[in-house]
């Protein structure tokens, strides 16, 4: 078993950041899989579930033989205070 830590930082740029498209990809040996963590900005009025559905449809078109687990509700944040999807 391996643990992976994301270390956040603050980076200052002279201009405006117009988009954050951060992607972390972890290749696992057991099971033989990859975990992809991406960050993007939702448009006003969008729901998380519909955003995930749209992203999965894009991935299905881009990745041949894509296999993934069904989306499910999870708890995230300090003391699991926020509802998220995985």
TrEMBL record:
Which UniProt keyword terms apply here? Coiled coil
Name the coiled-coil region(s): 42-69
Top-level taxon: Bacteria
The family database entries (SUPFAM superfamilies) matched by this protein are listed as: Mog1p/PsbP-like
| InterPro entries per record | DcrB/EagT6 (IPR014894), Mog1/PsbP_a/b/a-sand (IPR016123)
Record protein name field: DUF1795 domain-containing protein
Which Pfam families did the record assign? Answer: DcrB
Keyword Coiled coil, does the record have it?
yes
């Amino acid at each position: 078993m391996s643990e992976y830590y994301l270390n956040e930082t603050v980076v200052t740029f002279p201009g405006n950041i117009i988009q954050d498209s951060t992607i972390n990809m972890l290749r696992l040996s057991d099971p033989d899989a990859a975990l992809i963590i991406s960050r993007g900005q939702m448009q006003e009025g969008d729901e998380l579930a519909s955003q995930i559905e749209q992203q999965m449809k894009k991935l299905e078109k881009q990745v041949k033989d894509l296999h993934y687990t069904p989306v499910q509700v999870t708890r995230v944040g300090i003391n699991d205070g926020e509802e998220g999807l995985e």
